[in-house]
Automatic annotation (TrEMBL):
InterPro entries: DjlA_DnaK_co-chaperone, DjlA_N, DnaJ_domain, J_dom_sf, TerB-like. It comes from the Bacteria. Residues 206-268 form the J domain. Keywords: Membrane, Transmembrane, Transmembrane helix. Gene3D superfamilies: DnaJ domain, TerB-like. Residues 41-75 are annotated as: Disordered. It comes from Kordia algicida OT-1. This is DnaJ domain protein. The chain crosses the membrane at residues 12-32.
Amino acid sequence: MSGFASWIGGALGWTLGGPIGAAIGFAIGAAVDKATSKGLLLEPPKRGSQQRRKRVDPVYEKRRRRKTVREKQAQTKSGDFEVSLLVLSAIVMKVDGEVSESEKDFVRNYFTKMYGKQRANHAFKLFNGLLKKEDISTRQICQQIQMYMDHSSRLQLLHYLFGVTKADGHVDESEVDLIEKIAGYLYINDRDFQSIKAMFYNPVDSAYKILEIDKSATNNEIKKAYRKMAKKFHPDKLEHLGEEHMKGANEKFQKVQKAYEQLQKERGF
């Protein structure tokens, strides 16, 4: 169990405390006591403290907070992304009232490919605990992620969640609706949401949706859209998460390329 606690402590990063910390604390049970005693899980300071605060200029304070958020977003690490994946996956998989073995296998295999068998086994213990927890607040979890995770990493989270819903070959509408709600909480706009969704559900106009354009777009507008999307979904955007996450980033990038090549072929340019 000590190995499990050490792994959790090393993976948490900015997820210490807050709604994510609370969900994880419940899920890992006895391991939390040991982790807490070592200072791994910390409670955020409570509001209404009796400590006297200095008066500060509100404009300065607003700028300082924005700077702090940007710095924390830039420091998003693989462990932060990993824990966020587990929590959001558990939320999405439970929404239709039934968690299939194929969905569980998808999570286990995904983590095994990224982190290796030993670390994946530890992650899956936490994941099973999260599946049993009933009162995880989707909105609060997403607000914490949005505040401290960069936009490219949040897009990758969304891409992964669609993979989870497709894992059992049956997509429940409630799962897609929840992912759309999660996207909103993560400050991912509708065009980005529809783009990633089209990578998995292949509607008739999927190539246009992936490139975030309409069918009426000119050839020059298609070329411009491709350059924009290739930049947005380029694997280098996730380099800070480590090599283990580059495969998923490449999958998104390749789908953008295929969408562009499809339109080139259809239009003959």
